[in-house]
């Protein structure tokens, strides 16, 4: 007898390593930090002026920090059992 598919069955959960966004945010922030350092060194050496790329790199590092802060708040709320906390 052929096996019937249950269209309403819950899919198995993904492994934690595939759903954890912290390494991605850290990698992105590290890349922006490296870009900011390189552009800062080039500006200090007089090779190129500080321009919009340096500002974008600094903002990228800052937004990565904000994102990590939000993730930390959500995880803390989830551990406490708060209703509004996202499941990360």
Textual characterization of the structure:
- InterPro entries: DUF2530.
- The chain is mostly helical and 88 residues long.
- The chain has a domain at 22-80.
- It has three helices and no strands.
- It is elongated and about 70 Å long.
> Helical element count?
3
Order of helices and strands: HHH
Task: Please state the CA-atom Rg, rounded to the nearest Å.
Answer: 21 Å
The chain-level structural class is: mainly alpha
For the secondary structure, the number of strands is 0
Question: Largest beta sheet, briefly?
Answer: none
Bin the helical content.
Answer: 55-70%
Strand content: under 5%
Low-confidence stretches: none
Round the mean pLDDT to the nearest integer and report it.
91
**How does the overall form come out from the CA principal axes?**
elongated
Keywords: Membrane, Transmembrane, Transmembrane helix
How does the SSE layout of this entry go?
Elements (H helix, E strand, L loop, with lengths): L15 H4 L2 H23 L7 H29 L8
Helix pairs in contact: 2-3
Supply database-style keywords.
3 helices; 88 residues; single chain; mainly alpha; 0% strand; elongated
Q: TL;DR of this structure?
A:
This protein is mainly α. The protein has helices at residues 16-19, 22-44, 52-80. Helix 2 packs antiparallel against helix 3.
């Amino acid at each position: 007898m052929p096996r019937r598919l249950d269209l309403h069955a819950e899919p198995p959960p993904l492994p934690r390593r595939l759903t954890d966004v912290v390494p991605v945010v850290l990698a992105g922030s590290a890349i922006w930090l490296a870009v900011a350092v390189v552009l800062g060194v080039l500006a200090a050496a007089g090779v190129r002026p500080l321009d919009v790329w340096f500002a974008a790199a600094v903002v990228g590092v800052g937004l990565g920090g904000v994102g990590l802060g939000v993730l930390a708040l959500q995880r803390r709320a989830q551990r406490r059992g708060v209703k509004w906390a996202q499941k990360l």
